[in-house]
Design a protein that fits this description.
Helix content of chain C: 10-25%
Number of helices of chain C: 2
CATH superfamily of chain C: Phenylacetic acid degradation B
Oligomer: heterotrimer
Distance between the termini of chain C: 60 Å
Radius of gyration of chain C: 20 Å
Number of domains of chain C: 1
CATH topology of chain C: Ubiquitin-like (UB roll)
Order of helices and strands of chain B: HHHHHHHHHEEHHH
Helix content of chain B: 55-70%
Shape of chain B: globular
Largest sheet of chain B: 2 strands, antiparallel
Shape of chain C: flat
Chains: A mainly alpha (256), B mainly alpha (330), C alpha+beta (93)
Number of strands of chain B: 2
């Protein structure tokens, strides 16, 4: 399919949203490597991070192609500042305890699962292909996350309390995932992306059915934090980037 | 070598005549290159030595995740990040295989952790050195994994079945570890002056500690002799160290790096490199707990373990509730 | 609380061979054991099917019975194809 030139800019922005989500979350998850609650979980969580890094390379690679400014996935990951990152706030929040990490992953996985299923039917083949490949990986991530919700919700009073606290604290960061930005509409009209706002109800139902299994309540939709896709991030992202981009910033132009 | 100076609890080698009938049959099986399996009879000292050696090896893998893991979040490209993450994850897997092998000898993983956390069990001295720059990551892969492989390849043929089988798996997976390290250093050696400086500095710091990984010269050590008789140690420390040096020197040349040993020289007569004297007092201090990172490494492991305790409890409680629910429904 | 129980892991590779013992791991229950096995033992596409069994549920033969159990088959060489000498004209049977 020949892409209408007018769509380039909004499409690149959208792809950065997808790729920055996976990049920043992978970065957070990788902080767990070597520090998991049990060796088996250490390996499992790193597998998720590895999948997300793989997805990042694909999304940002495609974004760089569409941008057509001679960059690549690495230059997008390592040479943009906070204002140009398009990830949702949810993924940049610190890991906190294991319950916070598990709750964040659970909320994100279910969003990603729905989004990727839709995007795998995109009229833009390269985008559809990445979505389909990622979807398989995310199905497994979601299974794992659901299992942790059941364990933490049902396990001990301590685990239940920790998980509820985390879920409630993170809830206000979920609304943003379903926003439709100004540039999105043309992409939706062209069948390239899907209208995320239409997935919100399904997502809530999916989340609720898992929470039900652990007799946990779905938090009410109250005030929602937003701004990630406009580059209005939390303070946490700056520190994350400072660490992630350190070598590329300290030694500009070096090959690694 | 991830196991250093493993004690055998034996103060003198016995000849076959001095052994009991069971001991003799056991030694003869080993001499005939037959494998010992978990349910077979074995001398208590063999069992205890193996537990010490395998758990030390496993602890080294787990503690070894820390110096490299601390660079995952700073890896300079997405590709290097993925490679490093996969590599550090593999170390965790290797620890897991090794703990499992030790568990067949009648000790639990929790007991081994307890021994590590209390300071009773050791891990390789090498992981008590800091990973200061990105070049350290390449150097650890090249030298530290390189030294470990020297030891692990022969252990695939060691006398204890579960240990040998764990080593087969480890060696198969490790084959990319040394290469990725060398590949990463190669990029630095072809890079800017700053990158070359970084690489040389890392070699300067890691060279001698890598040689110490093989342990002090065996000399008259009764423990080494006993371990070799049991075929849980296949070559002497000095043999492996020499082999490692002989392989590493030309590799350093390709990188354009200088090994920090003024006495390093090819000896035609021996067919080996001669090398300078190793400062063994440094190794003993590190083993005693006085290396630059001993305290940090151990406290980081203890913290992760303690912070994970409520998660492990929750999973167990959930599993037990499920069993009760299932039986209540029947 | 006590340690997660130990499980033995068996994996069938893509080549249609039988499930093979690959190692063990800890997990709180069977569901977790399968997932952990996937994450620990199939990181390099080693398998397409996983079995897990509680280690404590495995019944093993006793080493001191080894002679009685396995030696009797040592003299049944006629069970092995190499026992039969065929004329050279008949190859590949």
């Amino acid at each position: 399919m020949e892409l209408d030139k007018k769509l380039n800019q909004p499409l690149a922005e959208y792809l950065k949203h997808l790729g920055d989500n996976t990049l920043i979350l992978a970065q957070r998850l990788s902080e767990w490597c070597g520090h998991g609650p049990v060796l088996e979980e250490d390996l499992a969580i790193t597998n998720v991070a590895l999948d997300l890094i793989g997805q990042t390379r694909l999304w940002l690679g495609l974004a760089a192609d569409i941008d057509d400014t001679g960059g690549d996935a690495d230059s997008l990951a390592y040479q943009r500042d906070v204002l140009d990152f398009r990830n949702a706030l949810l993924v940049e929040l610190p890991n906190g305890d294991f319950a916070t990490t598990a709750a964040r992953q659970f909320l994100f996985d279910h969003w990603q699962l729905l989004a990727l299923a839709e995007l795998s039917r995109s009229s833009l083949q390269p985008l559809a292909d990445i979505a389909a490949k990622s979807h398989k990986e995310v199905r497994y991530h979601t299974d794992r996350s659901d299992q942790w919700v059941r364990i933490l919700g049902d396990g001990t009073p301590v685990s239940r309390e920790r998980f509820e606290t985390a879920l409630n604290a993170l809830w206000s960061y979920t609304g943003e995932l379903f926003e439709v930005k100004q540039g999105d509409q043309a992409l939706i009209d062209a069948g390239i992306i899907t209208d995320m706002s239409l997935l919100h109800r399904q997502w809530r139902d999916d989340i609720t059915s898992v929470l039900d299994q652990a007799s946990l309540a779905t938090p009410p939709d109250e005030y929602m934090q937003r701004g990630g896709r406009d580059g209005m991030h939390s303070e946490h992202l700056g520190y994350l980037l400072a660490e992630m981009q350190f070598l590329q910033r300290a030694y500009p132009g070096a090959e690694w | 070598m991830y196991a250093q100076m493993v004690k055998t609890g034996v103060d003198k080698l016995q000849s076959l005549d001095e052994m009991s009938a069971r001991e003799r049959a056991f030694q003869e099986r080993i001499d005939a290159d037959k494998r010992i399996e978990p349910k077979d009879w074995m001398p208590d000292s063999y069992r205890k030595t193996l537990i010490r050696q395998i758990s030390q090896h496993a602890h080294s893998e787990i503690v070894g995740m820390l110096p490299e893991g601390n660079w995952i979040t700073r890896a300079p490209t997405l590709k290097r990040k993925a490679i490093l993450m996969a590599k550090v994850q593999d170390e965790g897997g290797h620890g897991l295989y090794l703990y499992s092998a030790a568990e067949t000898l009648g000790i639990t993983r929790d007991q081994m952790f307890e021994a590590l956390h209390s300071g009773r069990a050791k891990y390789s001295s090498i992981f008590n050195y800091p990973a200061l720059t990105w070049a350290d990551i390449g150097t650890i892969g090249w030298l530290v994994d390189g030294a470990a492989i020297m030891n692990q390849v022969p252990l695939q043929r060691c006398s204890y079945g579960p240990y040998a089988r764990a080593m087969v798996r480890v060696c198969k997976e490790e084959s990319f570890h040394q290469r990725q390290g060398y590949d990463s250093l190669l990029a630095l050696s072809r890079g800017t002056d700053e990158q070359k400086r970084m690489a040389q500095d890392a070699l300067n710091r890691w060279w001698w500690p890598s040689l110490m990984m093989f342990g002090p010269p065996d000399g008259e050590s009764v423990h080494s002799a006993q371990s070799m008789r049991w075929k849980i140690k296949l070559f002497s420390n000095d043999e492996l160290r020499q082999r490692f040096i002989d392989l590493s020197v030309p590799q350093a040349e390709v990188l354009g790096l200088k090994i920090p040993d003024k006495d390093l020289k090819w000896n035609d007569e021996r067919g080996h490199y001669d090398f300078g004297e190793i400062d063994w007092s440094e190794l003993y201090e590190v083993v005693k707990g006085n290396g630059p990172c001993n305290r940090e490494r151990l406290s980081e492991r203890i913290r992760a373990w303690n912070e994970g305790s409520w998660v492990r409890d929750a999973a167990l409680a959930h599993a037990e509730k499920n069993i009760h629910r299932a039986s209540a429904n029947n | 609380m006590h340690e997660w129980p130990l499980w033995e892991v068996f994996i069938r590779s893509q080549h249609g061979l039988a499930h093979r013992h690959v190692g063990s791991l800890h997990a709180a229950d069977a569901e977790m054991a399968v997932r952990n096995a996937r994450d620990v033992y199939t990181r390099r596409s080693e398998g397409v099917s996983i079995w897990v069994v509680r280690s404590s549920d495995i019944i093993a033969s006793r080493p001191d019975e080894k002679d009685a159990l396995f030696e009797p088959s040592d003299d049944k060489v006629y069970r092995h194809p190499t026992f039969y000498k065929l004329p050279d004209e008949v190859d590949n049977m």
